[in-house]
Amino acid sequence: MNYRHRFHAGNFADVLKHTILLGVLDALKRKPAPFAYLDTHAGSGVYALDSEAARKTSEFRAGVLRVLDAGDLPPLLRRYVEAVRACDAGTPLTRYPGSPWLAWYALRTQDRALLCELLPAEAVVLRSQFADDARMHVHQRDGYAALAALLPPPEKRGLVLIDPPYEAQEDEFRSIRHGLEQALTRWPQATCAVWYPIKLARTREPFLRWLRTCAAQQVLVAELAVRAENSPLRMNGCGVALLNPPWKLDQALSAALPVLARLLGEDGQGDSRLQWLKRE
Ligand SMILES: C[S@@+](CC[C@H](N)C(=O)[O-])C[C@H]1O[C@@H](n2cnc3c(N)ncnc32)[C@H](O)[C@@H]1O
Question: For residue 84, what are the domain limits?
Fold first, then answer.
């Protein structure tokens, strides 16, 4: 395991993923009943953008900073900016919120977060951050195994975020499919969000084909490309597959995605796609 998210925090992939994360969590809050949030690959929670690691790649400059600097944003992106600013109101931005922090920020008193992180050093940081908050449960364990062990939650409502590092390249999709099967068998109504990178576009096709046949009733895919390139060498785009997405999130995304493509695309090459793969 060599992947460290601190090199990539706040990049275009985080912008897409975290915008969708907040959209789903906010939608779950439309009902007063409590919900559970399971983050299978949590990371360390908050990232220092002035660290050597973040400055080395500077990926956040072509990601979060471009959105913070933009005016006239659609509601989903306004919400994303508001949450990032709640984590760090300063200029320049030196702290970027990861998915556990955003969940901590968005959850109500009755909701819970189950955060899985395999790497001991990251799990220690995560645990110390939320030590005083009984809603936040940190598990140093394999996030895929947690899908079988921790689901369904007693709340029977909620979100599962699967955000692996894809060190196994296309083989990661095999683990994801197996994990989703485990999750949906135990909890068919679960809303699941799966982030995936897009390098050579065709490598994600088998996963998208599988999603059309999976046990979720509805599957929506939101993709963002930052350059027209179609090569295995770089991450040219990314996507989030949403299983059983909340009502009307597609409408909010259809307003936000073209704006992200315009803001985050390289030299005007940005593009986006929103597609229902399954709608029963
Ligand atoms: C892409 S990062 C997560 C970023 C985080 N979800 C966010 O949005 O802020 C992936 C994380 O998964 C962790 N990891 C890798 N394999 C794992 C596994 N099998 N189970 C749980 N965590 C794992 C890595 O250590 C890394 O911190």
Answer: 5-279
According to DSSP, residue 16 is labeled H
Cα 269–Cα 275–Cα 280 angle in degrees, nearest 5: 175
Distance from Cα 280 to the centre of ligand 1, integer Å? 32
Mean pLDDT of 46-72: 95
Cβ pair 40, 144 in contact under 8 A: yes
* Nearest residue (CA) to ligand 1, atom 24: 43
Q: What is the pTM of this model?
A: 0.98
- Integer Cα distance of 50 and 168 in angstroms: 29
pLDDT per residue as tens digits for the range 118-128:
999 999 999 99
CB contact at 8 A, 150 and 160: no
Quick check: is 271 catalytic?
no
Total count of domains within the chain:
1
* pLDDT value of position 220: 98
| Mean pLDDT score, 145-170 | 96
- Return the CATH number at 52: 3.40.50.150
> Is the Cβ atom of 172 under 6 angstroms away from ligand 1?
no
**What is the C-alpha to C-alpha distance for residues 150 and 113, in angstroms, rounded to an integer?**
11
> What was the pLDDT predicted at 1?
80
Query: What's the rounded Cα separation, in Å, for the pair 82 and 61?
Result: 18
Confirm or reject: Cβ of 122 under 6 Å from ligand 1: yes
